[in-house]
Backbone:
């Protein structure tokens, strides 16, 4: 009685977001991300999701596509 179709829609949007990038990342990318942390410039390679700022969202994508 407490569930509805609205919840299912929200979940599927989040999944499509996390599989958007097929690039893999390693320690050198991580160091670059730390160097650029919270910078908001265009063309930053560590701005993985391309939203114009380097933050935890980019770190999340990097961690879920990690490769040694
Ligand atoms: Ca970003």
Residues:
């Amino acid at each position: 009685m407490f569930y509805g179709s609205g919840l299912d829609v929200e979940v599927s949007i989040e999944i499509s977001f996390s599989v958007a990038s097929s690039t893999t990342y390693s320690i050198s990318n991580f160091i670059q991300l730390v160097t650029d942390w919270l910078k908001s410039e265009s063309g930053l390679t560590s701005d993985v999701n391309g939203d114009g700022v380097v933050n935890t969202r980019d770190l999340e994508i990097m961690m879920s596509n990690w490769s040694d």
Q: What stands out?
A: The chain has a mean pLDDT of 83. The chain is about 45% helix and 0% strand.
